[in-house]
Amino acid sequence: MTAKVSPLLPEHWPKVQAIYAEGLATGLAAFSADTRDWPDWDEGHLATGRFVAKSADGKIAGWSALSPIPDT
Fold first, then answer.
1. Among 61, 70, 65, 71, which Cα is nearest to 30's?
2. pLDDT band at 72, cuts 50/70/90?
3. Measured between alpha carbons, how far is 33 from 18 in angstroms, rounded to an integer?
4. Is-contact 45 13, C-beta < 8 A?
5. In which band, very low, low, confident or very high, does the pLDDT at 9 lie, cut at 50, 70 and 90?
6. Separation CA 27–CA 33 (nearest Å)
7. Tell me, what DSSP letter sits at residue 2?
8. What is the layout of strands, in order, in the sheet containing 4-7?
9. pLDDT tens digits, residue range 24-70?
């Protein structure tokens, strides 16, 4: 599959949230238990390093984002 990578924008959230929820359902994908709504998710992730991968037909096939962690 060829994918085009582009910035993750707020309008991508419904599809990103659905993909995120599928991953969370496995119990292996993240430290979170739920996907939260856009404002909460947005606040918990860095503004840089957010991307979606779109298939040739423009559908979002995956995503990535960075979240801060405390320096402990």
1. 65
2. low
3. 14
4. no
5. very high
6. 8
7. -
8. 4-7, 51-54, 60-64
9. 888 887 777 788 899 999 999 999 999 999 999 999 999 999 988 87
